[in-house]
Design brief:
Layout lengths: L4 H16 L10 H5 L2 E4 L2 E4 H12 L5 E2 L8 H11 L17 E2 L1 H10 L1 H4 L5 E2 L3 H6 L7 E3 L2 E4 L1 H4 L3 H14 L8 H20 L10 H24 L5 H20 L20 H11 L5 H13 L3 H18 L1 H16 L1 H22 L2 H29 L7 H23 L3 H21 L15 H34 L5 H37 L7 H21 L5 H25 L11 H20 L34
Antiparallel strand pairs: 1-2, 3-4, 5-7, 6-7
Helix pairs in contact: 1-18, 3-5, 5-14, 9-10, 11-12, 12-13, 14-15, 15-16, 16-18, 17-18, 17-20, 18-19, 18-20, 19-20, 19-21, 20-21, 21-22, 21-24, 21-25, 22-23, 22-24, 23-24, 24-25
Length: about 675
């Protein structure tokens, strides 16, 4: 039976992934089709679903909105079911209160926010957890707590919006560098950004004051001619009809507000054959209709969506979505297809699924070390292989969506580094067995996915690059090669951590295992040196072509050089006999510090030509990681006679200076 267990575990995870490929069924309101509609935001075409997901990550920290607010069932959930079923709450049966999911999907949430903002305002979407900020805003006693975090509705924070805006304005005017801001100041700016995104999204398709958007647009079109005549007469100093002029300006106010505040550009270019990037927001399109003398064909579709959703007419909403998609597909079929593919990628969530499988494999690999059951090791290896396949599919999918090589920003570098480390770990496991390579592959795959998830909290991870970086050739050579060098140094470092921790705290570091780990670290360090050096040279050539100099002592360039030099130090120390197994392990662990600082450090400094993708939160986690590596190095410096794996091999009073004892024969009693 144990021989079948690895295959059974693999089958279960494959089945779960296969079920995720099934197309989601539309509910009464076709919000899935709505979420697949393409828009332009941050310089790239993306579906409304991506807009919603990235907005929720910045506002709430995750991609789903609880209907009930605090994790339990209740009135709001029942109200949502009643709304979806178009029957009054009091007419619903008890079992019908549980007909729909407990959480709003991103497409559901953005439709509700755009078309029924008063309902969306009661959702617990704003994350505020700094106690001093809560006291400053007088929000104590409000909101709900879930998993140790506190969430608030827009209705609850609406009264304190002037206070939030005032604090944010003072911080912007002070010109204080982000790296010097206090945690409270960073929380204020984060909350201000979240509120701004929220308010801009709710004005994306209709004004807040609209009750029948289609009729109001038609009425506005009728007011254009007389209103312009009155405006021109007033400007020329001639007599004009005051009521006509005032009526026209009142109609312009909400439209002008939409033109200035809308978040995503939803109206496609009028002439896509000559300008496929000429998207505008709906408010700007209505203002353009004043000059053009006609309404853009896309505007009535969006107005019909708004009215159908707002008035509870699901058929009208669904028809407007389907008709608009059909009309848009005849003009911008490539963009419609790209948005649909990205929507599928969003719902598949390949990196999240891979992360969970890596974690499961890591636990199985660690369990193997305790009882040496072969089925545990095989299960871990099989799961890592499957997770790597999902990881690879996600990586390729992103490359197709972006039309770029795999590494374009910090987020994609984390994804790619994880991908590279898993390959190296599986190769080591194939050569040496014993579960060491499997554990390294699983833990590095899991950790890099966690890093990528936290980087995604800053917003869209597929944004267009700065002009100097917008070069596919160099992204596919310099960036990919040097990122593989990063992967290799981390693999060497994690192998060294296993050596030290197993040696100090367990009796499982046999002589054969120790020598195998030493050979692994040495070989991978050679690999890391080659790729880091080659990638650094290619980066210099790119810099010479882009900036006119091969080397400028930029912080990122210095970091890349530090990695090369540190790898060279490890190799020379080994070749010169300055260190043995334990010494090379401590040096490799310190290599984790050097590499992590080179990877993130330049973005913390906020200076230099490579300072892109800045993330304030990374400083805390980088500091924690560096501290953990220093602690492990401290364990590695303990004289080996005190290591559990060597206590029965070192006579009392011997081993002066911590010299390494002779390895215990394989199979010797612990």
């Amino acid at each position: 039976m144990k021989k079948k267990l690895p295959w059974i575990l693999l089958f279960l995870f494959v089945l779960e992934a296969a079920l995720a490929l099934r197309p989601r069924k539309e509910r009464e309101y076709h919000t899935i089709a709505f979420g697949r509609l393409p828009v332009l935001l941050d310089g790239r075409i993306q579906p409304l679903d991506s807009v919603a997901r990235n907005a929720l990550l910045q506002i709430r920290g995750n991609q789903a909105v609880p209907l009930e607010g605090n994790g339990g069932g209740g009135k709001v959930w029942g109200e949502w079911s009643a709304i979806k079923d178009q029957r009054p709450l009091e007419e619903r049966k008890w079992w019908q209160f549980h007909k729909h999911p407990k959480k709003l999907k991103p497409s559901d949430w953005i439709a509700e926010l755009m078309f029924k903002p008063e309902q969306a305002d009661e959702r617990y979407v704003f994350l505020i957890h700094h106690p001093e900020l809560l006291g400053e805003l007088k929000l104590d006693g409000k909101g709900v707590e879930h998993s140790g975090l506190r969430y608030f509705t827009f209705s609850e924070i609406r009264p304190v919006l002037p206070t939030i805006g005032g604090h944010a304005k003072q911080l912007h005017e002070s010109g204080k560098n982000a790296s010097l801001q206090t945690p409270l100041e960073r929380q204020v700016l984060k909350l201000f950004n979240a509120v701004t995104i929220y308010q801009r999204l709710r004005r994306n398709i209709r004004p807040d004051t609209s009750s029948n958007w289609s009729a109001e647009i038609a009425e506005f079109q009728k007011k254009i001619a007389p209103g312009l005549a009155a405006w021109r007469a007033r400007e020329a100093g001639r007599a004009y009809e005051t009521n006509v002029f005032e009526d026209f300006t009142r109609a312009l106010e909400p439209i002008d507000e939409m033109a200035n505040l809308s978040y995503a550009l939803v109206i496609p270019p009028a002439k896509p054959e000559t300008d496929r990037k000429g998207w505008v927001n709906l408010g700007a399109s209505l203002l353009d209709s004043i000059r053009a003398g006609e309404l853009h064909p896309a505007v009535p579709y969006f107005a019909a969506m708004a009215d159908g959703y707002r008035q509870g007419k699901a058929e009208d909403f669904n028809k407007a979505v389907a008709d608009y998609r059909l009309w848009l597909g005849s003009r911008l079929g490539m963009e419609v297809d790209k948005a649909s593919k990205e929507y599928f990628f969003n719902t598949l969530q390949p990196f999240y699924r891979a992360m969970l499988i890596y974690l499961t494999a890591f636990l199985l690999g660690c369990a193997h070390w305790f009882n040496l059951s072969e089925w545990l090791r095989k299960s871990a290896v099989y799961l890592i292989g499957f997770a790597w396949i999902i990881h690879t599919v996600g990586l390729i999918f992103r490359m197709v969506l972006e039309g770029r090589p795999p590494v374009t920003n910090l987020y994609s570098s984390a994804i790619f580094i994880g991908w590279g480390t898993v390959i190296l770990g599986l190769l080591l496991e194939r050569i040496y067995l014993g579960g060491i390579g499997a554990v390294v592959a699983a833990i590095t795959g899991f950790v890099t996915q966690i890093i990528a998830h936290n980087l995604a909290l800053g917003g869209d991870t597929m944004v267009m690059l700065e002009a100097v970086l917008d070069t596919n050739f160099w992204l596919a050579t310099h960036v990919v090669i040097i990122t593989l060098g990063y992967s290799a140094t981390f693999v060497a470092g994690f192998l060294a951590m296993i050596y030290i921790l197993r040696g100090v705290f367990t009796r499982g570091l046999t002589g054969e295992t120790g020598k195998a780990l030493s050979r692994m670290v040495y070989g991978i360090t050679c690999f890391a040196t080659l790729f880091s050096f080659t990638g650094t040279v290619l980066g210099g050539i790119w810099a010479d072509q882009s900036w006119g100099r091969f080397w400028g002592w930029d912080p990122k360039e210095n970091g890349a050089l530090m990695i090369v030099l540190w790898c060279a130090i490890i190799l020379h120390a080994r070749w010169g006999g300055l260190v043995r197994d334990r010494g090379i392990m401590n040096l490799a662990v310190f290599g984790n510090i050097v590499t992590s600082f080179s990877w993130f450090g330049v973005n913390m400094l906020g200076v230099g030509l490579h300072s892109y993708g800045f993330m304030d939160a990374a400083f805390k986690w980088l500091s924690v990681f560096i501290a953990s590596q220093l602690v492990i190095i401290g364990f590695g410096l303990i004289p080996m006679r005190h290591w559990m794996s060597f206590q029965d091999r070192v006579p009392p009073g011997s081993n002066p200076g911590g010299a390494e004892p002779a390895p215990r024969p394989v199979g010797a009693a612990a």
